[in-house]
Structure formats: C-alpha cells, structure tokens
User: What shape does this take?
Amino acid sequence: MTYREIVEREATESKTLPVVAERFRGISGRKVLLFSHDDPDGVVTASMAARLLKRCGAAEVEVHLPPTFDLEPNEVREALSGRSFDLLISLDKGTSSKADELIALVPDVIVIDHHYQQGEIQKALVYNPCVQNDRPYCSCSYLLHILSSLLGRTSPADDCDALVGLKADWVIDPTIGNWGAEEFVRPFVEEMAERYPGLFRKTPGATLFDVTQRKESVVLSKIAQAYFAVSGGGFQYFFPVPSLNGGQPPRVLLEALLSLDKKASRLPEVDSPQDFFSLFENGDIFRECLAAFEQEWRRVTKLLEIATPLVELNGSQVLIFFSDRLRLLPLVGGLVLETLLAREGKENGLLIMINREEHGIHFSLRANCDRIHVGKFCGTLAQRLVDLFGHPDQITGGGHIRAGECRTRRSGAPYFEVLRVFFQLVEDLVRCDRGEAETTADPALIEILGPERISPAANNGKESRK
Ligand SMILES: [Mn+2]
Assistant: This one.
C-alpha cells in the first residue's frame, strides 16, 4: 500500500474522519480552543493542528498545553474565562467519556487521539482509528498528517512534525530499521525517507530512544530528543537554561515549531542535527536544553550506581533507589538496569526508583523479565494508598509488565506513611511468594507475582495457579 492509499482507506473505513474533515473545511471565521498533551508528540500535533486550522481560515486558534494528561471540564472553564469559542479540539490527551461533559462549555468538541478508550463517548466527535478501526499503534501526529493530507493541505513542516511524533512516541526506530506497522505507518515513513534522506542519516552517539544498542542513532532521533529536552517530555523535566527566558517550556517549543514553517522548504537538505536547529530563529533553545539534558543524563546514570539489592521475589532480584526531585529517572533507570543486575551477578530483576517530587512521591519500576508484573504492582500500591488517603484523582498507578509508575501528586499523603504502605506490599509479596496462607488468597498479590512462576509456592503448592 502507498501512503495515499492509506489516507483514502481511512477516509472510507473511518466513520468519523470525513466528519472531522468537514468541520475543518467549514472552519472559516470561527474561534478554536485547542488542548494538547505537553509531551513531544502532543506539541508537534498541536503545531500541525494550529497550522492546518489557520490554512483553513480559522479566525482564532488558542493553544493550551497543561501539565496533566486528562482534560477536565474545570481546565476548559478556566481557559475560557467567560469568553466563547465555536470549537474545542483535544489532541493526544486520551479518549475519555469526559469529552461529552465539555459540550456544555463549547458547542462543538473534536477528540483526535491514539490512546485506549475509557468509557463510552456519545456526543463528542472522536477520530481514534486505533480504537475505532483497530489500527496498529501510531502517534497522534500521524493522525493529524492523515487529516491534513485528506484536506490536501500538508507542508514540509507537517511532514517533519509527524515524523518526530512517531519517533517520540516510540512508534518507529529508524536506527535499527523499525519503520512501523506494514499496513499503516510504514508506507508514510518510506515516502518521508525518500523526501528527507538527511533525517534518516546515521549519527554517532545514542539518544534516550536507543535502548537496544548505545553506539549510534539517526538525525530524527536526535531531533526528537531535543524536543523532549525543551518541552520536559510530558514529565515537566524543565531545565533552567537562559534561552527559555522563563517561558513555559512546552509552549516555547510550540512557538519554535510554528516559526519553522517559513524555512521548512529547506528541510530536504538537512543533513545533521546542527543543520536542523539552524533553521529556527532561536536555535540556541535546542542546543542549550540538549546540553543540560545530556549533563543531567550522565549525572543520573552515575547516581543510580548506588541502587541497592532489597529482596528476591519469584527469582527476580529487586533493587531499590531513593532520590529527591531527580529528572529523567525512569528513562535512565530502564537503561542501567542490566548493568546493575550484572554487578550483583543476577540475570533477572527489577529496579524500584522512589523519587520525591515537588508535590508527592513518584514510584517508577522497570523490569527486565516477566516474573513480577510491575504495572500491577503500581496499580495495587495506588489502590492501597487511595484506600488510606483518598484522592483517587491525585494518587494513580499502573503500567505494563516491565514498566510501571505510581504517583501521589497533591494528595498530601505523608512520605513516611506512603513508604510504610509500600514496604507492607513488598512484605505481603514476599510471604505470598513463600506460599503463606493468608497472602495467597489475595488475587492482587498473585497477579503481581506474574505469569512466569518459578517459586516453590507455585511449583509445590497443592493447587496449581494459572
Ligand atoms: Mn501521543
């Protein structure tokens, strides 16, 4: 399939994309309030949407990039501050039934997103082919590119934004030849590689995206890493560099991207990250943030050397690390885990990073095997904390089998009490692993101990567990 064919297939098979396109065609003279995720994919998508709306004749496009993921009616009310808008667009911020509540505030609501769906959406117009048409994983930037292609209004800046979003959301990894799913993303990436060969050029030195090897990268990954460094990556990891000039970092990136449109015709000649940054009026932002990012990366790598063996669970070595307001922690932690385990002479394990934040405590877990489901660990920890302290809106936890997060945010839960709950959970797991009666009756604990059971409790127990 060609990219053009994929765009046409979306227009035919999606029930909502043609309606979204119709709304954009009729946007002339209208006022649009736009909310997007503050991570690199969210910011590039916001830049693409703002450009597209302007080209379609929108009278006003006001962009908001708040630090929280879910779009709450309160945030919209605050942004409106008594003014009226014709259309609200939510980008890369989840596909949630909350979107229906927003219609009371702005008459027309469009959600464009690639995350999984939470609840039923009745009134808001949603384009999320990953949910609605079961398409493979992609980025929100890619969906915006499909929309602007359908409208016949793409520019080189859109091509570049779409590629960076795909890279930053881990959809593609050109360094190792991963160009995305055959029948959805790949034809687009192939077309782009022909048009902008310099973006796919190999360059020495790894980025945060190069997790399977640390020798080299491609220009596109270096650009995505720079966007991460400027925007804070959706984690609000902001660096105090002079060129940010006290501005809100995701917004500083957005404004830089919008200014790129003027010089984007030079994109096909770009051959190196330096070349690329020189296209911006203020390329120093990227150079300074990237330097601060790389320095912090080295510092965090060094600090993680003190991670300490805590206990062995289901044949998996648990390491623990405490820190205070450290940036980049889970990203670096995931990368150094193997080295830390090798030092302990262990093959399988997980790293628990406990970081005090500006507000609350952040638990990040990274594993290199499937023996402890760390996402479920974080989910159970959050549940126990909510049972004790309330604030289910602030205390959240979850993730995948090898990567999980739990944050207490502004719940006000005291550090000592949170740690007590955490260590109680670890103790319960140790006892469950040994097969002690009361604990093995708790399905949450059994689920955390994972599908790959090797402990005596699983092998010699009277009843076998699935
Ligand atoms: Mn995204």
Summary: The chain has 19 helices and 15 strands. The mean pLDDT is 94.
